[in-house]
Amino acid sequence: MHSQQLRKEGLALLTFDEVLGGNFLGRSEWQDFIHTWNDLPTDRYMKDGGTYRERRFSRFHLDIQSNKLRQKEHAPYSQPEYLNPLNGGILRHFDPIKSSTVSIGIFRDFLVNMGNFLGKADNKIEWDINVYQNRTRASSDTKGKPVPEGMHRDGVSFSVLLGIGRENVNGAVSTIFDDDKEPLHTCTIVEGDVLVFNDEITYHDTTEVELSDSDINNGTRDVMVIEFYTSLVNKNQYYVK
After folding, report:
1. Which pLDDT tens digit goes with each residue over 165-176?
2. DSSP letter string, the chain
3. At a CB cut-off of 8 Å and minimum separation 6, what does 74 contact?
4. Fewer CB within 10 Å of terminal CB in the chain, N or C?
5. pTM for this one?
6. Distance (Å, rounded) from C-alpha 209 to C-alpha 211?
7. pLDDT tens digits for 41-78?
């Protein structure tokens, strides 16, 4: 059903438990996983001067036929300016996702299962994968921007947003747009939500994050962003073997 929705509408709504096939959000392994968002360095490459985003980034390769997931050699990340007019056109040296995080079973299982799901939807036998751990902060004097470049495409085949958590924040409302930039779907991603969209035929954006309780001078919105592509098709990805 979800594959049909993805092919027909360009997006699909799932849950983490659906992707993994069980009740995982209540387990200690999920808590271990989401706690790794407490150790993300500040994104030093925000050309708007903002310090509201924290991030780790790594690349992987998935062979669907063998279900073998391999972490690639770490390298800088880059996007062309036509895809990211704010932060594109430079090499960004993000810290890699920690090996202790990569070794968590549900992290690897999620990438493998999602890769299989998208492989069936798009007739692929392998994927190159970008994975970002993102935290967007809000304070009494700063609204965080989950998507500081505004409505855009990522330059990949499929993008996935996994909700990790929200604490003391309002906003961060995500919208998927069609090829004519008309809205298709709007939602607020919460813990365990999975939003999948075909990046080649849609655009996406997310509103600012602001405090829900101004007496507490800190709020966070955590997501994992996963991009699936192949180096032969998506030429604008800075490819690392």
Report:
1. 999 999 999 999
2. -HHHHHHHHSEEEEEHHHHHTS--TTSHHHHHHHHGGGG--B-S--TT----EEEEEEEEEEETTTTEEEEPPP--B---TTT-TTT-SS-B-PPPPPHHHHTSHHHHHHHHHHHHHHHHHHT-SEEEEEEEEEEEEEBTTB-B-SSTT-SB--SSSEEEEEEEEEESEEE-EEEEE-TTS-EEEEEE--TTEEEEEETTT-EEEEPPEEES-TTS--EEEEEEEEEEE-TTT-TTS----
3. 58, 59, 96
4. N
5. 0.93
6. 7
7. 999 988 788 899 999 999 999 999 999 999 999 998 88
Say if residues 205 and 177 touch (Cβ distance below 8 Å).
yes
- With contact defined as beta carbons under 8 Å apart, do 166 and 190 qualify? yes
pLDDT band at 241 (very low <50, low <70, confident <90, very high): very low
Task: Give the span between the Cα atoms of 72 and 128, in whole angstroms.
Answer: 9
Is residue 234 situated within a structural domain? no
What CATH number is associated with residue 214?
2.60.120.620
